[in-house]
Amino acid sequence: MNKVLQSRNGMTLVELLAASVLIIILLLGFFTFLVQGALFTEKNDDSLKGTYLVRNIMEGIKNKEEIRGEKYIERFNTEGYPTVKSVNLNGSFKSNQDLRLRINPHPKENSDIKIFKIEIINQENHIVAETYGYLGVK
């Protein structure tokens, strides 16, 4: 019986616990990288969508006389407001209801150029994408 107790063919409970703790620590580190990667991908995806939408808006409002004033424009497609085919009346995009459009005109006196800022905003009111546009005044 003494030989059976002194046999070291198996693992002790302490060795099993140590191995389990090491595996758990390694897996937690690995899953942390996965979560960070998923968050980065989601943020980058919103930015890419916003950039694409901004380009479409820039093409749609070139040479529009409706881009005027000094305050943000957040209403569209009605009389006195810019006509943008890809957005609803409240500025939300038809293709992506989570994002909405906001235009901020920057009038310059005695200038032949009209400057405006286009912003794409998410539901938390964070700017996802922004760009500036320039229109020639006739």
TrEMBL record:
UniProtKB keywords: Membrane, Transmembrane, Transmembrane helix
Annotated TM spans: 12-35
Domain of life of the organism encoding this protein: Bacteria
Record protein name field: Prepilin-type N-terminal cleavage/methylation domain-containing protein
Keyword Transmembrane applies: yes
Native species: Salinibacillus kushneri
